[in-house]
Specification:
It contains six helices and six strands, in the order αββααβααββαβ. By secondary structure, it is α+β, with helices and mostly antiparallel strands. The strands form two sheets. It has a four-stranded antiparallel beta sheet with strand order 4-3-5-6. The longest helix has 15 residues.
């Protein structure tokens, strides 16, 4: 049907353009961000805000599949599937990421 066709169009388009996505999530919202395949964590953070890239400290990562399987962040952590990644981490399609960053001046961590 239409839903299958739409999914196939989007999937084929993303693949053809060498794109993928990652998610950020908080208590009130979940957002999907589009990046090129091969993007490193600091540059992915920069798609959200330039300060995130400039002050990148680490990325706390879980896969969407792990979140779907275990249902909560706490359960993903308990299963040992939540990890901390550094500047050389290549973001994977469907990652759910919490970025840790530090923007100088006051040295506040976000």
């Amino acid at each position: 049907g239409v839903q299958y066709s739409l999914k196939k169009i989007v999937t084929t388009g993303y693949a053809g353009l060498n794109l993928q996505y990652f998610f950020t999530a908080g208590p009130d919202e979940c957002k999907c961000w589009t990046i090129r395949k091969g993007t490193l964590a600091p540059q992915a953070a920069g798609t959200i805000h330039t300060d995130f890239e400039k002050g990148f400290v680490k990325a706390e990562v879980m896969s969407f599949e792990d979140l779907k399987k275990h249902e909560t962040e706490a359960a993903v952590k308990a299963a040992g599937r939540y990890r901390s990644e550094g500047k050389a981490y290549e973001v994977q399609d469907g990652d759910v990421i919490f970025f840790r960053f530090n923007v100088s001046a006051g040295g506040k961590k976000k």
